[in-house]
């Protein structure tokens, strides 16, 4: 499953976020079938990622071991243990995109941003993550930057797109 | 009454291409011109022909405009809505008809050979308004079941229709329901598998986005048939539009009394809850999906006990895929005979395919079972772009196989696909041309399954990794013929010893490419050559005599591997070359080739 990379960025959660998390956990604990996965989904919506500090709170509040929480957090590809860049680049590596050259798109993007797939830049501005099929195969190959979608890409388009975000 | 309806596709392909803004632009223009009482703008689900999106259709004319941009909106309003003239330049131009404009979507070759059952409402209704679904006979099937049929009669109809699971394995749906009905238990569950993890497949997403009530209605019918009061839809978190529309649909159904404690005053209680996945391919496997709904790592469980006996929260559970449910209401309303009249002897009805890859008309197609692959690729799909040759079609995703040109005329159904080494799968169909290397494709799927293997059983966790290492050796030209034999043996070992469907089918892409494209494997091994020029470690870039010595490539090369004298032929230093292909893209004279 997803390769485990622990963050080196210090945890900067606020008291407000923690209060929000505890409220969510109360809600989940009082449901008929409390689910660790749901807790992690809600927690990631609050913090943007799942640092070990947050997982610890979930484990304590839900009365399960930290191993169990960590096991679920590292099983699913949507969960991230690292903070994502302000501009998160995602390249679709679904089959339709792959046969149309999305592998080359990732390589070019890595070159332009000076990052490897799965990494976040040290200033926290950019990150690259190859993704599974995003479901708009008609636009293959497809890349997303936050909520913006770029379709029918060629390797030549990448430098301009990257420059646009670097100028922001 | 509106005189004109403007339908704007809100499926994911068009949505990603700004169809939301196009819809707003239409609404704004209509307001400006004070036409809001005459013209209605409707956001719909997927029309299917994603390749030429964003798509709009204007009724009553049925004019099908493709490739629309926000700035085209004023012209369409002025010409079509105000002056009543078709805007020919925005109409879809069909290549097969000599690039002539085609007025209606139903006149295109893409549509003519399709039969829409599961997709009948996609691109027709506004999926966010329950009344539009009801106006298309929505919830009639549920009413019929609750008031005219007893649960066994419902199951008998589904059985008689011959409907088989559309998620891939093709298990008879009615039989599955019967198993669950026969269990004596107060608590049973109805689940919907909307975790469409097969890369390159978007059938279920389009049904959920375009016709969510069809799934809710069918699940309620299933609940009535097996004696369940709670349903769960397990949907991929990567599908935000589908999740949003499902939430709206569930809220509207509750409001109308079509979900809840006393459905339609009959006393039958049923409700549906959404459960979001978090991205794990293995969760498409039924027992893994249930473990995931329970909130754990989505690891499969050994069967038996089967879910119909002991499934979600250890209670009897049925799980069907989105497309399977989308057929149910039509079977109840039109009868089992009607459904069974379509398709082949053992595969009834229609099947939705997500057509993608090297094909002109990328998109969503629904065809009667028994249609040939050739009809799908050449007639509906419009053939291969750029004059290239068809090499293979991949069905069944990472569990399936590649179908070569020699089987283009085979009628598509569950059993035929298995017999030629592929499988129906959920319906992804990726077309490949001569530029695709089949060993590379097998490796691509293996990388996927290795990454997605949950790690619970050894044959899948370690076996597939070893398999991937063989493929890596082959694509780097270091393998021997003995490796090829060993690799094939390992494939059969993994298939027969893995715990769940993921591992049992993971070697299929390797086995099917070995079966039909063994010569390509041998070329990699014996000649250290990749015939399709894809495997980077086996190709060389060379400068031919066409070179005029302009030095453009040499200036572009990121590793300074190209050198030469101006106005003389340049040379590539193979030791430095990283095969990035930038020189080929730069050369204006076609003087650089891959070998």
Architecture blueprint of SSEs:
The complex is a heterodimer of chains A (168) and B (595).
Chain A (H helix, E strand, L loop, with lengths): L14 H15 L6 H12 L4 H11 L3 H10 L11 E6 L2 H5 L2 H12 L12 E6 L11 E3 L2 E3 L7 H9 L2
Parallel strand pairs in A: 1-2
Antiparallel strand pairs in A: 1-3, 3-4
Helix pairs in contact in A: 1-2, 1-3, 2-3, 3-4
Chain B lengths: L3 E6 L2 H5 L2 H14 L6 E6 L11 E4 L3 E3 L7 H10 L9 E3 L5 E3 L6 H4 L17 H6 L4 H9 L2 H11 L11 H10 L6 E6 L8 H8 L1 H15 L3 E6 L4 H16 L15 E6 L9 H8 L23 E5 H13 L1 H5 L9 E8 L5 E6 L4 H8 L9 E6 L5 E4 L9 H6 L8 E6 L4 H15 L5 H18 L5 H17 L3 H5 L2 H9 L1 H9 L14 E3 L8 H5 L5 E2 L7 E2 L9 H5 L5 E3 L1
Parallel strand pairs in B: 1-2, 7-8, 7-10, 8-9, 11-15
Antiparallel strand pairs in B: 1-3, 3-4, 5-6, 11-12, 13-14, 13-15, 16-19, 17-18
Helix pairs in contact in B: 6-10, 6-13, 7-8, 7-10, 9-10, 9-11, 10-13, 17-18, 17-21, 18-19
In short:
The complex is a heterodimer of chains A (168) and B (595). Chain A has 168 residues and is of the alpha+beta class. In chain A, 44% of the residues lie in helices and 11% in strands.
């Amino acid at each position: 499953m997803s390769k485990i990379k622990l963050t080196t960025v210090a945890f900067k959660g606020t008291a407000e976020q923690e209060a929000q998390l505890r409220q969510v956990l109360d809600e989940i604990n009082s449901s008929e079938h409390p689910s660790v996965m749901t807790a992690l989904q809600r927690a990631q919506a609050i913090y943007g990622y799942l640092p070990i500090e947050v997982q610890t709170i979930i484990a304590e509040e839900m009365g399960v071991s930290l191993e169990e929480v960590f096991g679920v957090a590292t099983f699913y590809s949507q969960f991230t243990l690292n903070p994502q860049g302000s501009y998160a680049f995602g390249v679709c590596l679904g089959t339709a995109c792959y046969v149309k050259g999305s592998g080359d798109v990732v390589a070019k993007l890595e070159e332009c941003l000076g990052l490897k797939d799965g990494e976040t830049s040290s200033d926290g501005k950019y990150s690259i993550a190859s993704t599974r099929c995003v479901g708009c195969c008609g636009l293959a190959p497809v890349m997303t930057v936050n909520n913006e979608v770029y379709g029918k890409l060629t390797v030549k388009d990448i430098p301009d797109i990257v420059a646009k975000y670097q100028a922001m | 009454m509106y005189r004109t309806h403007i339908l704007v596709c809100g499926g994911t392909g068009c949505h990603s291409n700004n169809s939301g803004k196009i819809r707003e632009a239409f609404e704004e223009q209509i307001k400006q011109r004070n036409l809001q009482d005459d013209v209605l703008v409707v956001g719909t689900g997927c029309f299917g022909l994603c390749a030429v999106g964003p798509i709009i259709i204007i009724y009553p004319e049925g004019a099908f405009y493709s490739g629309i941009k926000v700035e085209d909106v004023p012209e369409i309003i002025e010409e079509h809505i105000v002056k009543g003239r078709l805007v020919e330049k925005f109409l879809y131009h069909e290549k097969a008809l000599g690039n002539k404009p085609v007025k209606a979507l139903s006149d295109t070759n893409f549509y003519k050979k399709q039969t829409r059952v599961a997709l009948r409402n996609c691109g027709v209704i506004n999926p966010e308004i329950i009344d539009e679904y009801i106006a298309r006979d929505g919830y009639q099937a549920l009413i019929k079941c609750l008031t005219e049929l007893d649960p066994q009669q419902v199951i008998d109809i589904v059985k008689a229709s011959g409907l088989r699971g559309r998620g891939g394995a093709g298990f008879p749906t009615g039989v599955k329901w019967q198993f669950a009905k026969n269990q004596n238990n107060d608590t049973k569950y109805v689940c919907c598998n909307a975790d469409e993890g097969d890369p390159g497949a978007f059938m279920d997403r389009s049904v959920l986005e375009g016709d969510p009530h069809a799934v809710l209605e069918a699940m309620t019918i299933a609940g009535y048939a097996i004696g369940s009061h709670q349903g769960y839809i397990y949907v991929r978190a990567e599908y935000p539009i589908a999740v949003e529309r499902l939430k709206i649909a569930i809220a509207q159904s509750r409001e109308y009394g079509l979900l809840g404690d006393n459905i339609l005053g009959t006393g039958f209680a049923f409700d549906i809850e959404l459960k979001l996945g978090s991205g794990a391919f293995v969760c498409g496997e039924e027992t893994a999906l249930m473990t995931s709904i329970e909130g754990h790592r989505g690891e499969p469980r050994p069967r038996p006990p089967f879910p119909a006996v002991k499934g979600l929260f250890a209670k009897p559970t049925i799980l069907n895929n989105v497309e399977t449910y989308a057929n149910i209401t039509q079977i109840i309303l039109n009868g089992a005979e009607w459904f069974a009249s379509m398709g082949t002897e053992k595969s009834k009805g229609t099947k939705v395919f997500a057509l993608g890859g090297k094909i002109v008309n990328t998109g969503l197609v629904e065809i009667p079972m028994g249609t040939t692959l050739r009809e799908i690729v050449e007639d509906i799909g419009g053939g291969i772009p750029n004059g290239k040759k068809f090499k293979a079609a991949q069905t069944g995703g990472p569990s399936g196989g590649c179908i070569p040109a020699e089987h283009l005329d085979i009628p598509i159904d569950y059993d035929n696909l298995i017999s030629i080494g592929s499988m129906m799968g959920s319906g992804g169909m990726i077309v490949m041309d001569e530029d695709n290397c089949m060993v590379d494709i097998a490796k691509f799927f293996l990388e996927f399954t290795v990454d997605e293997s949950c790690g619970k059983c050894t044959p899948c966790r370690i076996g597939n990794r070893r398999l991937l290492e063989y493929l890596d050796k082959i694509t780097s030209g270091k393998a021997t013929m003995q490796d090829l034999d060993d690799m094939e043996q390992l494939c059969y070992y993994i298939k027969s010893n893995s715990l769940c469907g993921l591992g049992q089918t993971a070697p299929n892409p390797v086995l099917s490419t070995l079966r039909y494209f063994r010569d390509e494997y041998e070329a990699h091994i014996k000649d250290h050559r990749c015939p399709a020029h894809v495997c980077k470690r086996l190709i060389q870039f060379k400068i031919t005599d066409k070179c005029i010595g302009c030095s453009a490539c040499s200036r572009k090369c990121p590793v300074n591997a190209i050198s030469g004298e101006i106005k003389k032929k340049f040379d590539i230093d193979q030791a430095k070359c990283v095969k990035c292909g930038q020189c080929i893209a730069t050369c204006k004279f076609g003087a650089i080739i891959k070998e």
